[in-house]
Structure prediction request, 233 residues.
Amino acid sequence: MTARLTSELLPAWVTWLRAPNPGPMTLDGTNTWLLDDGTVIDPGPDDPAHLDAIVAAGPVRRILVTHGHHDHVEGVATLAAMTGASVGEAPDWLTVLDTPGHTADSVCFVAERDGRKVVFTGDTILGRGSSVVAWPDGDVGAYLASLDTLTGYPVPGLPGHGPALPNCAVAAAWLRAHRLERLDQVRDAVKQGASTPEDVVDLVYADVDPGIRFAAEWTVRAQLAYLATLSEL
Prediction:
């Protein structure tokens, strides 16, 4: 069954539903966010119980997505058919931030009402851990710039996976420092003789879960591409 969660970080006008699709890439499952004006952010998988829970928590008037990965958008068409909701048009009181990096189409949504402001971060910032830069669509330089943007939002972050974050700006700053540290490690791996992304993963991500090694290789390919643009490789 879909998990319906609560958090003291949520304004009264936000409801949090978690889809039943846990896994190495989705953590506890995809977070679906419902706003009391009928906006749904990231419907998640095309799972009947989850979509029924969204409708029950409705109304559902419009559907938005933070990016095009299937664990966020698979249920869009079915939910739209169930409710007649529009797709892709944000209400005036939501600010859309272009935050490419995880994917080229990644966005975040900033919402402010009744003295409360939150940022829906999608997979740009997760509730725990770090996000994959999904090469070739993802881009490290763009991701660093997006994190710079998000350091300007010291308000709760409501991510695509994992728990709500007390402070989006703090999380963004930590992730940016982590990415720069990883880039240093990749440089060192290349200096040690790593000649392929697989070699770099062996050195830099030696403890990665075998089930998500492919994601580490995506990120390494993106890191190597970024370093090449700096003429460092």
Notes: The chain has seven helices and ten strands. The two ends are 49 Å apart (CA to CA). The helical segments are 48-56, 70-73, 76-83, 140-150, 168-191, 197-204, 213-229. Residues 178 and 184 are 10 Å apart (CA to CA).
